[in-house]
């Protein structure tokens, strides 16, 4: 429970976790009061002046029947988003470690629907990430009709990409070699491109063979990360639709490997990978950031203002 010391704000227990180096601050907002403003999230995400993380994950009681928890996700820039695949695996491991559940199959409500997490052996978790969305307005992506590959103008140059939503928006480019791909330059331009009105995560996909791929992702609201689970799912969907990949693919990211399976049209994407706990900590919040019992429902990420 939170405690107050004279002249200081309340304290907050958190756990630092990662999925293949995509790192998280995870907070149990069921057994302690919790609320953080976006500016506070940005400060805490700082790797020099804060705890350092790509995303903040918050565990809340469910708001729907037949669901175990509600899962809220905030990017390092403070924006609330709909989906985080690596975070989902850490979420499953966290709620079991904290004894919030002993179930091995956990149903979780996200801002874009319900996902199912299956806890396996040796820290591995399988996530049913749901059916990918390819309809442009639902991604959202500006296009007059649905296509597998769109040509996008970036400062006078054209780039071919696929647009996929895994609950959150992704653009996927096929490149010859991820080591030399223009992730730092093209990533931020496409992340905030006007054709992605809610911004997007941008994946650079290298096909090794039909069941192996390499991937780097410039994440919306976090920059390039060591791994992006929803990005790996979107990349495999894009690769399958382009006829370049089979239905079961090992995706090599900077931080390690994920196995992604997609059986095609109308089928959900399954993601298999590890979840790792690094340490547990307690944070003294400034007086002005008093947690409240009722966390406010945030809006999905929009254009940076
Ligand atoms: N790292 C995540 C994705 C986190 C959210 C993303 N940056 C967004 O804004 O949609 C993953 O593993 O999927």
UniProtKB/TrEMBL annotation:
It comes from the Bacteria. InterPro entries: DAP_epimerase_AS, DAP_epimerase_DapF. Its EC number is 5.1.1.7. Residues 281-305 are annotated as: Disordered. The record marks 279 as: Important for dimerization. One of its GO terms (molecular function) is diaminopimelate epimerase activity. PANTHER family: DIAMINOPIMELATE EPIMERASE, DIAMINOPIMELATE EPIMERASE, CHLOROPLASTIC. Belongs to the diaminopimelate epimerase family. Catalyzes the stereoinversion of LL-2,6-diaminopimelate (L,L-DAP) to meso-diaminopimelate (meso-DAP), a precursor of L-lysine and an essential component of the bacterial peptidoglycan. This is Diaminopimelate epimerase.
